[in-house]
Amino acid sequence: MTTLDRNQNKLDLSQILEVLSDGSLPIRFTAYDGSETGPDDAPYGLHLNSERGTTYLATAPGDLGMARAYISGDLEASGVHPGDPYEILRVMSEDIHLRRPPARALAAITRSLGWELLRPIAPPPQEHLPRWRRVAEGLRHSRTRDAEVIHHHYDVSNTFYEYVLGPSMTYTCACYPNQDATLEEAQDDKYRLVFEKLGLGKGDRLLDIGCGWGGMVRYAAKRGVKTIGVTLSREQAEWGQKKIAEDGLTDLAEIRFSDYRDVTETGFDAISSIGLTEHIGVHNYPSYFGFMKAKLRDGGLLLNHCITRPTNNSRARAGGFIDRYIFPDGELTGSGRIITEIQNLGLEVRHEENLREHYALTLRDWNRNLVANWDAAVAEVGLGTAKLWGLYMAGSRLGFERNVVQLHQVLAVKLDAKGNANVPLRPWWNG
């Protein structure tokens, strides 16, 4: 006999969860109405502590509603630190299989909750506007709208990012030379890999598009490369310029608060784009890679490093949680689509590789940093935002581990008029 058969009149919250999950729960669930379900000795648990949380869950089923309830404090997790809820997310994703109930069960759930709890309410303040309401910021991937969504994500607080990212201030996938490497060693190795793939040397000129806080800019400048970095985040640009001055690199390095399309210089020996393509919009790839081609000298190399999907025919737009809380207007596609667009412009792809597992390790270490600096992080940005970041990074780690998303580096060269690449016959970098 099912929960629904046992109680035809009204279901409590734990019974509703049993109906939605077929009753197979690996975690302990308790709720403000006094109901509970799941093993008493489960290592992890969830407590729903308010009607507002029920409304969030009911009006936005899936990851968006869960995020709203969790960030607002209406849904609390036990057995994990709020800066790293990876383990409970892992167990829930592996062993809880929510389903859409049949019409009879859905009607019973609706009747049990009541229309008052099913009326949508304002989301937590950390949430960005839905896509249809962003038109006031301009068309999707217009300059003004791109600037606004970059501000939403990257101008949280430089101090907060220092707590999460560590001394490198690098918010992109690291490259771990071995399983025991530290985050800082892995980020340095990523910059080394990009530098060597681009064949850079003293006296060369590098353009770094979407440079963040300038990690690649400073790495190249320390090795004698004249480097320009551009970012749409004012806080990143100010932090990066200050660091350049502290390192005595002002003669070689510059970070501009600017749209990359406003760079007027040409004839670069190399261009790096590390973690920007996700914000460009798939339909803008031709102009994006075309811009890079126009800025390179003949024989110049470009390296594109970005998150991708494992296939090339899936939906490009991000899901509800990522779009509303993390990367508004973000779009992902497969590495094949990226390579195709680069090739269609006449650039020659020389190498590509997937660093998917490296990003899972990177996110693991960012979560560890957040946990280690939790009190300071909460004081800096507030509990809701700190919990948001813990949730986002832990969930993303699962995505990379399970091949929901990947991280690809694609290396291409601008051929000369005779079709010469003028690069060594075999890979010239230390992998």
From TrEMBL:
It comes from the Bacteria. One of its GO terms (molecular function) is methyltransferase activity. Belongs to the CFA/CMAS family. Signal peptide: none annotated. It comes from Rhodococcus rhodnii LMG 5362. InterPro entries: CFA/CMAS, CMAS, SAM-dependent_MTases_sf. The keyword Methyltransferase applies. This is Cyclopropane-fatty-acyl-phospholipid synthase. Keywords: Lipid metabolism, Methyltransferase, S-adenosyl-L-methionine, Transferase. One of its GO terms (biological process) is lipid biosynthetic process. Pfam families: CMAS (PF02353).
